[in-house]
Amino acid sequence: PVLVVDFGAQYAQLIARRVREANVYSELVPHSMPVAEMLAKDPKAIILSGGPASVFEPGAPGIDVSLFSAGVPVLGICYGFQVMAYELGGTVDRAAMGEYGKTETTIDRADGILAGSPASQSTWMSHGVAVEKAPEGFEVLAHTQGAPVAAMQDGSRGLYGVQWHPEVRHTPLGQALISTFLHECVGLASDWDAAGIIDDQVRAIRERVGDSQVICGLSGGVDSAVAAALVHRAIGDQLTCVFVDHGLLRKGEAEQVRHDFVAATGIRLIAEDASEDFLSALKGVSEPERKRKIIGEKFIRTFEKAQRQVIEEAGRTGSEVRFLVQGTLYPDVVESGGGDGAANIKSHHNVGGLPKDLKFELIEPLRTLFKDEVRAIGTQLGLPDEIVWRQPFPGPGLGIRIVGEITRERLDVLREADAIVREELTRAGLDRDIWQCPVVLLADVHSVGVQGDERTYGMPIVLRPVSSEDAMTADWSRIPYDVLATISTRITNECRDVNRVVLDVTSKPPATIEWE
Ligand code: XMP
């Protein structure tokens, strides 16, 4: 593999993903992994990520200098580049002028990692210290106003570094740089793609599962459907899917999932109606993290309860279910604080919301992937577009879209509003332009309205349409005003107790996509 060494960057996984976009297999490893252990993975190249530290700070994460003479090509990015320069004897200036965001960069030599580059490039920077002088043996390839050495290389040792972030889309020629590094400088072949991921996962799953029984929690979303299809390809009939109706589903969802999924895959499916159980456990709870933890735990309890039926349907009395498949994606892991040193933003039900006494062993074949990669795999596995291109819907469902306590009445109101929004967005042909559009009920907020000559005191509905590539960052979607007008009129006319519709115009960050 190509190893991406994570120095605690927000973008480390993004680097791994850009490497895969160049059709080369990559893995993320923490910077704390000893160099010998990294080398034991027989890496074809190593990329050092950025990170929040400064090389001068006491305790700043470093890397053993032996890495640079191990004969493996290394590309340092931002902090990783500074570490390389510092460890090899270059000069790093702590008083440099910082550069944040879009930065014009002069290319002094369009060679090596910058082969074919124009004389100047727009790059995305985020640094407060700068490399002033490159170490012995390196040639300087680029500079900016604030970074005398913005890119450097020593082709004979296979060492390369850039101050900017080639992995973000805001560096237009960033992907070209990564691809040049991998294919031209290191000479790697393009041999990693959806078909390759499937083959690897199928092999790994077969080996792990043996002849045990496996269940998959199916939510109706893309992720769990693709995970199920992948595991089904590996172990066929040993897999049973369990669809849990937790009472927090959208209108028509249960029927649709059952029908579409079974029709498309032929996988055995058990539906559990656990709405009573979920809703009574959620009674009186309005704090988002508590909701999430309760929902996460209830899912598992429901799967445990479903076990006996799973075994019976599989005709395997006497055995037990050992594995649980989840469609966990990388963003779920990172935002639940699962990345190395990452903060807990919210506990996704299938990660941070899992109970401690989990009896199942987890199979999460998509855990290192992003949504668009998962969609490519789904299509490759033969799933239809209706499943692969469904907009994301969170496992905790409408439960995290009612700000305040969850009650059946409020769920009914929200369910109606949500159905109207989906219908109108589809009618306007906007489904593929929008990543997803959470509809949120602010149940504890009341405002005055006038309807039919009467005073009303009702709740607001929030529309949260967003565009995104992978849900890690998002922007609010510019929906045409007339579509918004139709939605607003319909919601206030058709949804009891709602007298106001508002539009959320915040990007992520600073907000998240869901309100809770
Ligand atoms: P946030 O709100 O964190 O959402 O910006 C990012 C993406 O994740 C979805 N989401 C979840 N999906 N279980 C899920 O399966 C969860 O607990 C959960 N929380 C958020 C959200 O809809 C968006 O697509």
What does this structure look like?
The protein is of the alpha/beta class. The chain folds into three domains: 2-185, 3-Layer(aba) Sandwich (Rossmann fold); 194-388, Rossmann fold; 407-503, GMP Synthetase, Chain A, domain 3 (2-Layer Sandwich). The protein is 33% helix and 22% strand. It contains 14 helices and 23 strands. The chain has a nine-stranded mixed beta sheet with strand order 2-1-3-4-11-10-9-6-7, sandwiched between helices. A five-stranded parallel beta sheet has the order 14-13-12-15-16, sandwiched between helices. Strand 9 and strand 10 (151-154) form a beta hairpin. The longest helix is centred in the middle third of the chain and has 26 residues, at 288-313. The chain is globular, with a radius of gyration of 25 Å. It binds xanthosine-5'-monophosphate (XMP). Residues 292, 335, 346, 348-350, 392, 394-396, 436, 471, 508, 512-514 line the site of xanthosine-5'-monophosphate.
SSE layout and pairing:
Layout: E1 2-6, H1 12-21, E2 26-30, H2 35-40, E3 45-48, E4 74-77, H3 79-87, E5 91-93, E6 99-107, E7 120-127, E8 130-133, E9 139-143, E10 151-154, E11 159-162, H4 174-185, H5 194-209, E12 213-218, H6 222-235, E13 239-245, H7 253-265, E14 269-273, H8 275-282, H9 288-313, E15 321-325, H10 330-335, E16 361-363, H11 371-380, H12 385-388, E17 402-403, H13 408-427, E18 439-442, E19 447-451, E20 454-463, E21 466-468, E22 474-476, H14 481-494, E23 498-503
Parallel strand pairs: 1-2, 1-3, 3-4, 4-11, 12-13, 12-15, 13-14, 15-16, 17-18, 20-23
Antiparallel strand pairs: 5-8, 6-7, 6-9, 9-10, 10-11, 18-20, 19-20, 21-22
Helix pairs in contact: 5-6, 5-11, 6-11, 8-9, 13-14
The protein binds xanthosine-5'-monophosphate (XMP).
